[in-house]
Amino acid sequence: MALHPQVRAFLDHIAIHNPLLENATLQELRADVYTYQQYAGPQASDVTVEHEYFTSPTADLHAVIFKPKNVKANAPALVYFHGGGWGFSFPLRYAATLTNMSAESGFIIIAVNYQKAPEHPFPTPFDDCYAGLLWVAKNAERLGVDPTKIGVGGDSAGGNLAAAVALKAGDTEDVQLAFQMLIYPCLSIDFDTDSYKAHATGFGLDRDGMIGAWDLYVPKEHLTNKYAVPANATTFTNLAPAIIALAEHDVLHDDGANYAKALDAAGIPVTFKQFPGMIHGFLNHGLMVDGTYEMRKWLSAQIVEAVTSPK
User: Fold this and answer.
1) What is the pTM of this model?
2) Out of 3.40.50.300, 3.40.50.1820, 3.20.20.140, 3.40.50.11810, which CATH number does the structure's domain 5-308 have?
């Protein structure tokens, strides 16, 4: 279907009020991300926000913990990796999304502020995220988490990181994940898919911008590494069931759709939904786009199902 009218209005609004900076420096682009927080919508009031730190192989990292005020003992957990092209953004930009999902699902959500490219290219952000998962599993009792009900998730570049973390968890069996939640993930370096061609410009995330993000994140010698480019994976040993949510009008649509097909062909359970009329990033557009709430509630319902349905 065509762009949803609310999405069209959002794109027209940011073209006027948040135009792309011409010849911007990396610092200016990172600062510009803060101006988009206003579009995410309200935070849930019945969720606490706590801050912790843990050590990855290369740094001390910040984790933001979203916890329902009436949280039950041994709650399920979602370890979340935010989007932003591996080089931008931060967990609190997702406060509206993650507080609402925590309230709706009863999950404790731990958002990891991994180190960013280009200063810290692959494997550093991936290593940070995997270390975050291990930290949550090791500290499950203290965090109030059921260690048998931990999943990972993320959007865009964070979806890439979540898919890669799930692949490594399956390979190592360090943690038996309950699910992997992939929200319009970037998984492949094929920039000539139908969705890349159809949505190259004008839909919020441009093809050239995505190519540039990959160039900054993955050094050439790592382009065949499945933890950098999950579409490279050919086997899916012990892999967690996948929840995959896509936007119809998104260069990354086919990345997620093709990965869902590959997982399904390998016998990995996949729950898949495309949101018609939506664009990349709409998870954080709740101020102007009602589809944001539809997606959040669907995701919340799916992660609850993932930890309650019989195995």
Assistant:
1) 0.98
2) 3.40.50.1820
Domain chopping of the chain, boundaries: 5-308
Return the active site residues.
156, 250, 280
d(CA 311, CA 300): 19
* CA–CA dist 133, 172 (Å, integer): 13
pLDDT in tens, the chain (311 residues): 899 999 999 999 999 999 877 888 889 989 999 999 999 999 999 999 999 999 999 999 999 999 999 999 999 999 999 999 999 999 999 999 999 999 999 999 999 999 999 999 999 999 999 999 999 999 999 999 999 999 999 999 999 999 999 999 999 999 999 999 999 999 999 999 999 999 999 999 999 999 999 999 999 999 999 999 999 999 998 999 999 999 999 999 999 999 999 999 999 999 999 999 999 999 999 999 999 999 999 999 999 999 997 65
Radius of gyration of the chain from its Cα atoms, rounded to whole angstroms: 18
Length of the chain: 311
Separation CA 238–CA 14 (nearest Å): 43
Q: What is d(CA 74, CA 222) in angstroms, rounded to the nearest whole number?
A: 38
